[in-house]
Design brief:
Length: about 475
């Protein structure tokens, strides 16, 4: 049997440089559309380069192919959720749930305070249900609609939604990643959350201040449709009532009960379909130009797999009130699969471990160790395109070193979240970045500079690490 050689640093560097250079070329040519095909081809090519290195070092193609298949299979849960979210958006547009949220939101939210309010609302919802993804797909979609209605900048609005969603997610004991990080690092959940507050709360406060300043100083572009016109068009096409919000309430209840995400969201989509049939009979009759039951069922069915489409007589409102469907998530699914293929090959060939081993040799101080952890988690996000991998892989690789240096495991679990979970939405080909783009309809290339919480938190964490602020020693080490 042919022996497998350990990869060199040059081996590890080649596919990464190949990926980075071609991604830069892709963005230069296609701009924010680069995630709609070009990046997927690059990720497959980069996986090919990494595979060639693996073959050179003695791995068989079968082993590499199995790693690719396994890497993609890890994403299937996220893909199921994506498809369910597509259906949910389609039926909630049809049922009047999202239009009702937009209608009442326009009455409540002032344009000057919109960004900070969007951030706070997203944080509250995410903290309650423990999911940044569900928050973006529900209240986030409505907030983006309100942003269009008041002439707010979509990229800033998306940044506000994402900032709030990730802050709420991080401090919620219901969050999957907030549970995963301490499990990997060997710390306690609530100790982990308390330790995270030192970096998350100041970062969130700074983000709120920046969103407030933007709201009052932004040279806002006039909305293509006035607020009154938006509300009038919604009233003219939908039966607007508080009953339309029941699907949202039921979804939140399912999330609070910690029911699995995929069935909860798909049930939410089905409830939206039933609500559309019950409460939007006039809308269905107008779209179908028929009162036949089969025609109404066809529209609802189509909303689930291909999205909902409405003609109001106003192009801007047609775009605002149309969308969703499982088909709208297929490009995002394509991006996730190719990104995870590349990440799986990089891990199998041993190229990721090479980087970490080199980093550990250079990380002499506690500050540099925590900083290295944050950058490794971020780098794992870039390479493997998955926030769970950005927690698990660096967590496994650094855990022993933290213990050897007498550091409490909460330092590691916090660093994994500060560098991994929080930065995942900033990367276009990451599962989170692709998801947010698919749901909020704004590319990460456009919103990243306005996701203030996600940008500030890792920087603040690094500053605290070098200052030694709230860097805890292992209690057993202190006793000795």
């Amino acid at each position: 049997m042919k022996s497998v050689k350990s990869p060199s640093f040059i081996d590890a560097l080649i596919p990464v440089l190949f990926l980075v250079i071609l991604l830069a070329v892709s963005v230069a040519i296609y701009g924010s559309d680069s995630s709609f095909g070009p990046n997927q081809i690059i990720l497959i090519l980069a996986a090919g380069v990494a595979s060639i290195i693996g073959l050179k070092n003695g791995l068989t193609w079968k082993a590499i192919e199995d790693a690719m298949i396994h890497g993609i299979s890890v994403s299937m849960g996220a893909i199921f959720i994506l498809l369910a979210v597509g259906s949910l958006i389609g039926t909630w547009l049809l049922s009047g749930t999202v239009p009702t949220l937009i209608y009442f939101g326009l009455q409540i939210l002032s344009p000057d305070w919109f960004y900070v309010a969007a951030c706070l609302l997203s944080a509250i919802v995410a903290m309650s249900i423990g999911s940044s993804w569900t928050t973006a797909a529900t209240i986030g979609v409505a907030l983006m609609g309100i942003a269009n209605g008041i002439g707010a900048e979509p990229a800033i609005a998306a940044g506000a939604v994402i900032s709030g969603a990730y802050f709420g997610d991080k401090i919620s004991p219901l969050s999957e990643t907030t549970n995963l990080a301490p499990a990997v690092a060997g710390s306690d959940l609530f100790s982990h959350i308390r330790h995270m507050l030192w970096t998350t709360v100041p970062s969130f406060v700074i983000a709120l201040i920046l969103f407030t300043i933007l709201g009052f100083t932004e040279d806002r572009v006039a909305a293509n449709v006035s607020v009154d016109s938006v509300q009038d068009i919604i009233l003219a096409n939908y039966n607007v009532s508080m009953f339309n919000l029941i699907p949202l309430v039921l979804l939140v209840i399912m999330a609070l009960k910690k029911l699995p995400a995929f069935p909860s969201i798909f049930i939410g989509a089905l409830i939206g379909a039933v609500w559309g049939f019950i409460f939007q009979q006039e809308l269905l009759a107008n779209i179908a130009n028929s009162t036949l039951l089969i025609d109404h069922i066809s529209i609802i069915w189509t909303a689930m797999f291909d999205g909902f489409s409405i003609t109001t007589g106003d192009d801007v409102m047609d775009k605002l009130l149309s969308g969703g469907g499982m088909s709208s998530m297929l490009n995002t699914t394509w991006l996730i699969m190719t990104a995870l293929m590349f990440g799986a090959v990089m891990e199998k060939v041993g190229l990721l471990a090479v980087f970490v081993q080199g980093i550990l040799k250079a990380a002499k101080s506690t500050g540099s160790l925590i900083t290295s952890t944050i950058f490794t988690a971020f780098g794992t996000n870039l390479i493997t395109a998955d926030q769970y991998m950005s927690i698990v892989m660096p967590g496994r690789m650094y855990k022993e070193e933290y213990e050897r240096r007498g550091l409490d495991n909460v330092n590691l679990s916090r660093a994994l979240e500060d560098g991994g979970t929080i930065t995942s939405a900033l990367i276009p080909w990451n599962t989170c970045g692709a998801y947010m783009a698919g749901v909020l309809l704004v590319s990460p290339l456009d919103y990243w500079q306005f996701a203030f919480f996600n940008l500030i938190n890792p920087v603040l964490a690094i500053a605290f690490a070098y200052m030694g602020f709230k860097v805890l020693k292992n209690k057993s080490e202190i006793i000795r």
